[in-house]
Design goal:
The radius of gyration is 23 Å and the shape is elongated. It folds into 2 domains: about 70 residues, Winged helix-like DNA-binding domain superfamily/Winged helix DNA-binding domain (Arc Repressor Mutant, subunit A); about 40 residues. The protein has about 120 residues and is mostly helical. It has a 3-stranded antiparallel β-sheet. GO terms for molecular function: DNA-binding transcription factor activity. Pfam families: HTH_20.
Length: about 120
């Protein structure tokens, strides 16, 4: 499996609002599947489990069995990988362009001020 397949699974998992909400719910602490189901009263348990399966397949959630309970843990590393691959470099390039634009505008403004003297 390629890194592109991994990214495709991650983006697919992040594409659905319920799955993004599950990840938000898991951000601060692991939660049981029952607790997550209670966060979505409009959905049946089977649907929540299907969403969790998509998140597990994308390696965004790691499930741990403790007795009869299933604890779901957020794995933020795939999101960090997306940030490192796309968001960070694109944000840096955009910031650099804005800095150059600012310098150009400020230089032009100084030239205009000299011309007014």
């Amino acid at each position: 499996m390629s890194i592109h397949d991994d990214f495709d699974r991650i983006f697919k998992a992040l594409a659905h609002a319920v799955r993004r909400q599950i990840l938000d719910d898991l951000r601060d602490q692991p939660l049981t599947t029952g607790t997550l189901c209670a966060h979505f009263p409009e959905l049946d348990r089977c649907t929540v489990m299907q969403h969790l399966k998509v998140l597990e397949d994308a390696d965004l959630v790691i499930a741990e069995r403790r007795g009869r309970e299933r604890w779901n843990h957020l794995n933020a590393m795939p999101i960090q990988d997306i940030h490192d691959r796309w968001i960070g470099p694109h944000a840096a390039a955009a910031s650099a362009r804005l800095a150059r634009f600012k310098q150009t505008v400020e230089a032009a403004s100084r030239e205009d001020a000299k011309g007014d003297d």
